Every structure is written in C-alpha cells, then in structure tokens.
Structure to design on (401 residues):
C-alpha cells in the first residue's frame, strides 16, 4: 500500500486515502514541493480554514502580484483569468458579498424547487434510453447529460446549442488541476473566449426579450441601485455550469462504482431499507468528487506548531477531511445509514456551494430512477480513473441493465 502523496501518479488518483491517512498521522500541515503548497489533511483544520478570512481565493483585492510575491499570469491567459476572476468562486469581499447577494436574488430556493419536475423528467428520459439499449456508459448516458441539461434549461440556453457546453466546461476546468501545462491553458483560453462570446449574445437577446430563465433573472436582479455587470453575469453563468455539473457527474459515477463494491448495502438501498437522501450524503463523503480546494494566505496563520506565512498557498484536502477518524466513526467504511455526516464536500463559509440544493436534487433523482428501474444493473468491467486529481472521476462506467 503506497502512502506517498503524489497527485500525478495513477495509483494515487485511484486510491488517495492511504496517503491521506499517513499525512494525518504525521501532523496538521505539510509542505509539498511538487505544487509548492502547504497540505492540510485534518477535518477540524480544513473546516476552520474555509471560514478564516485571513485566507482567500484571491489576493488581488488586497495586494498586487508583486506585493504578494507572485508573478502575474501570462498575458495570453487573460481571457481565462478575466472570466474566472469575476465569478463568485474566485472573489472575496466586498465584491463577493455584493455579487452573491444579487445572484441569490435570482438563484432562489424557489428556482430550484421549480426545476424539480424538469429534473425528474430528464432523469427518466435518460434512464429510458439506457434501458432500451440494455446498458452502456453510465457516465456518458446519464451522469453527464443530466446536470448539463438542467443548467442549460435553467439558463435558458436553446436546445440546439447545448452540445457546446460540456466541451467548453471541460476545457476551462482543466486549469483547476495542479500545475496545468501550456496545452491545457491554450484550450481553457479558447473555451473562455468562445463561451463568453456566446453568453454575451444570449444576454443581449434576453435584454430585448426577457424570459422565465436565470439569465433574465440575473439581468433583473438589483439591490439599492446595484446590478451585475455584463462580465459578472457571464462569469456567474459559466461558474454555474462548471460547478453545477462537475461534482454531480463524478458523485454519480464514483458513487455507483462504490455501490457495486458494496453489494449488501446496494441491495438494502434497492429494497428501500435505507433512506436515499441519507445514502447520497454518504456517497458525497465517502469518495469526494472535489479532492482539494486551494486558498491564498493573506496574513500569517498558525496551524499547530507551524506558521504559514503570507504569500503562501494552502491546499485543503477535502477527501482527507471527509475520512478523518477524529470526526467520522469508522471513516473508511461505507455506511449508507450514517446520520452524523457533516461532510465538507460542498465547502463551508462564504464560498459554500450555492448550487448544493440543486446538486442534491439531481443526485437523488438519478440514483432513485436507476435504483427503481434498473434493479439488475451491474458493472461490465473495472473502470479506469481520469488523470486529474483535483476534480477526480472515472473515464467511463460501463454497465448492463
């Protein structure tokens, strides 16, 4: 059993949990030369640091690159950084506070609740097709299309254009991996330019002809004279797509892979002996789709007996925190009935995932549909993992029904 933290090794990506256990045993914070980050593996520390305003997703609200001891990104990467830097995920107060307040006016619990019949219909249609073919790749046939279709429906993107979304999103998300190479950056920049241009046209159309969709609601959202700028709207829509499907896709396929490896619990779930919503929370904890979340250190912080200086970057290991025995009883055991389950898969603090209720709705719908209508669904062969570590998922999940 390899306990080396190596996010570029296929064996580590396939099973990072022994390495996490070794990190937790060795201490509260560890310098990792490979990405020049301080790794934080414990639940209590990760949870506290997510809420600590001495850390930030960006530092540009307080420092220039030079003041912070960092080099500005290459000029040719600017389209990606403009797009990413104006979204909620990479902003801090006061801009984050203002934008989240305005977006929350459009992305309300009622918005999500209104999508419930749409999510149920889309899940049923996708499972219909899978059953008609006797099975196939669960990733491509159900896990990916469902959240993309839901976000597209919510944004009001016309059906003929929806095939563009997943490739754009995948290209942009490549930049969130550790040390992305030049080709990854080039694809992300191209996708950023194309996606932004598409959304600019869609926003212009909704200004002329408002509809019952989120883009129209974002245009209309205002508070004491404040409105979202066009760039903020574009960045918000891209973030909703990227964040709104990556976690859902990987929780679906990773979750089913986990269930196939625990046949007794899968049988109990199929029999209705276990609450589906409780089971979904455990699958979100057990094999976390987003393994790492990064933060810049804006002011010196102390973690245990280590001082992490301003200008450093910390890597909060969500996958490790969700398996920490100091917080979860028998954390390496899948327990679909686990009631005490405060996992941090959706984050915490001001950056807590705005789309968490929608993700839960989608996961419950797709798992529920497959459990009910494909009671004999089985794995065809052992799946392979994508090379990415931060956003961790399978290449495919071939099943028979």
């Amino acid at each position: 059993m390899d306990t080396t933290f190596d996010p570029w090794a296929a064996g580590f990506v396939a099973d990072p949990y022994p390495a996490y256990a070794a990190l937790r045993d060795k201490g509260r914070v560890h310098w990792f030369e490979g990405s020049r980050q301080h790794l934080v593996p414990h639940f209590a520390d990760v949870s506290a640091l997510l809420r600590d305003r001495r850390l930030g997703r960006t530092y540009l609200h307080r420092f220039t690159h030079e003041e912070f001891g960092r080099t500005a990104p290459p000029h040719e990467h600017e389209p990606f950084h403009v797009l990413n830097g104006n979204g909620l995920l990479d902003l801090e107060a006061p801009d984050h506070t203002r934008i989240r307040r305005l977006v929350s006016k459009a992305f309300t619990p009622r918005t999500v609740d209104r999508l419930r019949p749409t999510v149920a219909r889309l899940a049923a249609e996708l499972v219909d097709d899978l059953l008609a073919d006797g099975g196939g790749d669960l990733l491509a046939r159900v896990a990916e299309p469902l959240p993309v279709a839901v976000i597209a429906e919510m944004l009001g993107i016309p059906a003929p254009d929806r095939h563009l979304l997943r490739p754009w999103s995948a290209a942009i998300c490549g930049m969130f991996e550790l040390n992305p190479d030049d080709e990854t950056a080039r694809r992300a920049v191209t996708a950023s330019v194309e996606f932004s241009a598409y959304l600019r046209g869609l926003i212009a159309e909704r200004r002329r002809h408002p509809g019952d969709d989120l883009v129209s609601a974002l245009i209309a959202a205002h508070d004491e004279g404040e409105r979202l700028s066009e760039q903020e709207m574009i960045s918000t829509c891209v973030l909703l797509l990227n964040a709104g499907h990556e976690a859902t896709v990987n929780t679906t396929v990773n979750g089913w892979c986990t269930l196939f490896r625990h046949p007794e619990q899968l049988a109990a779930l199929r029999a209705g002996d276990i609450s589906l919503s409780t089971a979904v929370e455990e699958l979100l904890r057990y094999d976390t789709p987003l393994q790492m979340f990064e933060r810049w250190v804006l002011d010196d912080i102390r973690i245990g007996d280590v001082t992490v200086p301003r200008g450093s970057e910390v890597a909060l290991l969500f996958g490790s925190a969700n398996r920490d025995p100091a917080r979860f009883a028998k954390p390496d055991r899948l327990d679909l009935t686990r009631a005490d389950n405060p996992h941090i898969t959706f984050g915490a603090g001001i950056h807590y995932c705005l789309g968490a209720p929608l993700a839960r709705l989608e996961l419950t719908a797709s798992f529920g549909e497959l459990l009910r209508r494909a009671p004999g669904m089985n794995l065809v062969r052992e799946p392979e993992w994508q090379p990415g570590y931060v956003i961790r998922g399978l290449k495919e999940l071939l099943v028979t029904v």
Observations:
- The first helix runs from residue 10 to 14.
- The chain has one domain: 10-400.
- The chain has a mean pLDDT of 95.
